[in-house]
Amino acid sequence: MIVMKFGGTSVGVPERFAVATGLVAEQVPRDPVVVVSALAGVTNLLVEFCRSTTARPALARQVEARHVDFARDVRVPASQLEPLLRAWQLEAESWLPSHQVIAGADRDRVLSFGERLAAELFAAGLRARGVDAVAVLAGDAGLLTDQRFGAAHPLPDVAAQIARHLGRRPPLPVVTGFLGRTADGRPTTLGRGGSDYTAAILGAALDAEEIQIWTDTSGLLSADPRIVPEARPVARLSFAEASELAYFGARVLHPKTLLPAMDRGIPVRVLNTARPDDPGSLITHDAETAESSWRVKSIACKKNVTAVTIASTRMLLAYGFLARVFEVFGRHHIVVDLVTTSEVSISVTVDDPSRLADAIADLGGIGQVEARPDLAVVAVVGEGAPTHVGLAGHVFTLLGGVGIGVEMISQGASRVNLSFVVRIEDADRAVRLLHRGLGLDMERMEAVTGRAEET
Ligand code: ADP
Ligand code: ASP
Ligand code: MG
Q: What is the dihedral of CA 223, 224, 225, 228, to 10 degrees?
């Protein structure tokens, strides 16, 4: 079997919706399970519905109108969405008298409507093509999570549950991405962009032969195309390379996506619904088949990062100093990205400043603390590249040549990633400069021929 995941832009544009349902119909002999995101822009509307009390009535109507119009455009009979749209109206109306921001379990229930409506639409689109398909809530498919609303974690035994619930096909299940359910039946969400993660969780549970992520670029590109318009698809990547890119800002894959696939060795393909014949990117354990040489494949960039430096002369040769520092971050649930140390100080970067103030107060008991906001991490990724003599020199010479200052560098920790920190206003310029300076804008044969040799 295969998993085919369609993102918001694939299901939210009528012409692409038709392509997407057509692609699934073609793949029926491979026994697909489909995962869908909300129509493009819908999750943002729902997030705003939760945040803004004044705009709520207008946003409620907008969410409804978007789906009614879309159903008409893709010729899905209005009756197919009616029960769910009625449920949305009731949900929305129940919030109109309230002047509270909607949070926690309530917020996740509100957000769940985006994926629920998309799954109904997609299943109806498949049925119109003669495919026996049914919309399935991720919770009904066995995707149970803990109660961390907004960023829920699947429970340890989800794979067995999913295999049990989705084991019998047809009908072809169109599963809601991004969502889970607590053991006591409340909807949860897996974090923004989480439908990719859903696809990988299902793929691992069902032992898929392949997980396909259908999006709006022809694969994982050599940089974010909004920063580098000439960025090119990377034909082959290892799980390690793709994980680093996803983690450091390549939004095309949710950072957790590759873990379940990697555990089970399931290939992940990133493909373009607008250009379905393009080869896309193939992500497997091994980046290359025959090639032994290293090269930089892609550059990612994560913005709005804060660097925290803790300096203490007592650190010199002291046991347990690092343990005390990380205990504080752990206690405040703050994820640390880059770490550098000197004899008297440690610097780390964090990407979620919301809980930082409390942590900084606690760190004050260990040493002098300085926080520098408005930074960006740039990650230069390619298997073997960081250890290649001369790459770091080349990178920092290029940056120095145009006056971009580097605040922190992390090299040896990873085989695949050379990452460094710059001021946020320099980030795009640094990515563009390195993309050109490291030759990523040049045409590669494999980008053209990649798929033919792999399939
Ligand atoms: P979907 O709705 O299909 O999940 P997303 O918007 O979440 O799509 O992710 C696709 C987008 O990710 C692209 O349109 C692009 O703007 C952005 N992106 C950032 N970095 C990369 C990269 N290295 N390769 C491809 N896309 C990238
Ligand atoms: N619809 C959700 C979001 O916008 C999940 C996803 O797109 O993967 O974050
Ligand atoms: Mg996405």
A: -60
